[in-house]
Each structure stands twice: as C-alpha cells, then as structure tokens.
Amino acid sequence: MRKLTAILCLGLFSLLALPAHSAEVAMLDWRQALLSSDAAQRSMQDLESRLSGHQQEAQSLGQELSQLQQRLQQEGDSLPDAERQTLIQEFQQKGSRFEQLRQQIMEEQRSAEQAFLEQAEPKLEEAVGQVIERHGVEVLVEPQGVLHSDRDLPNLTDEVVEILNTLN
C-alpha cells in the first residue's frame, strides 16, 4: 500500500508540473473502490466458502463453551470432584480448540486480503490513471485527507470501481 500511495503521489506531482488544462481537484476513496469491486466481492465470497466449516465449528464450540461455563458456575460446587474436573478439562480442551480455530480464521483472512491486494494493486493504479487522465485531475485527495473545501469535490470512487470491474 505504501508503494501505491507513493506512486499516486509521484503521479500527482508530475501532473502538477505539466501545463494545466484544468484546475481540477478531485477525491477518491481507493479503499472503498477496491472493496466495492466485483473482484473483491468474489474474493470475499471465496473466503467465506473456504472458512464456512471453521466458522460453523467455532460457533458451535462457542455455544458449548457458554453452556459448560454456565453449568460450572451454577452446579460446580455441588458436583462430585471427578465430574467437576471432567467438565473443567472439557472446557479447557474446547476453549483451546476454539482459540486455534479463531487463529486459523484470522490467518486465512489476512492471507486472502494480502493476496487480493497484491493482485488488485496494478489494476487500481491503471483505473486511477484512466480517471485522472479523463478528468484532467491535477490533485487527487482521499476523503479522510480533506480538512476544508469551499466547494464539493468530485468523487471519482464510483468511476474507479466501474473501471476496476472491467479490468478483471
């Protein structure tokens, strides 16, 4: 992402050095553009289908852990030691499995996100370049980076999404 930001900044600075045919300042939410693209939607659906089994297992374990915890709190003191120890051991084993699943899910999500960003970055750069050229944009800012503007800035995000969707 730093690379993308640096390339966008260099591109913008080089545009500023050229004779301007318009004095356009526009806005682009590149994160929204990426996440709204068809490719991102497919990537998220693929990830969800790959993780559905782990997520269902984690949800089931979470419910079982809640029930075990509730039972231990309500009946723990009145249960025979052997039964209480068995419940505690079961709770610990299921808790360990739940944490393992949570870590696997998080790692899969990180990995999928990284793979998507690596694949999508060149396409985003191309789409942004096309939109900058089409609109004669001299300065392109992120919505979060605008502190004040006396006028509404054109938001090019939807147009970038359209181009991204054609680059698949």
Question: What's the story with the biggest beta sheet?
Answer: 2 strands, parallel
Mean pLDDT, all residues: 85
Order of helices and strands: HEHHHEH
Strand order of the largest sheet: 1-2
Instruction: State the separation between the terminal residues, measured CA to CA.
Output: 20 Å
The whole-angstrom Rg is: 25 Å
Shape: elongated
In total, how many beta strands? 2
Please indicate the percent range of residues in DSSP E strands (runs of 2 or more): 5-15%
Spans where pLDDT lies below 50 across 5 or more residues: 6-21
Number of spatially distinct domains: 1
Instruction: Supply the number of helical segments.
Output: 5
- Tell me the helix content: over 70%
**Helix/strand/pairing class, anyone?**
mainly alpha
What labels would you give this structure?
single chain, elongated, two-stranded parallel ribbon
SSE map:
Elements: H1 2-17, E1 24-27, H2 30-36, H3 38-75, H4 81-135, E2 137-141, H5 157-166
Parallel strand pairs: 1-2
Short description:
The protein is mostly helical.
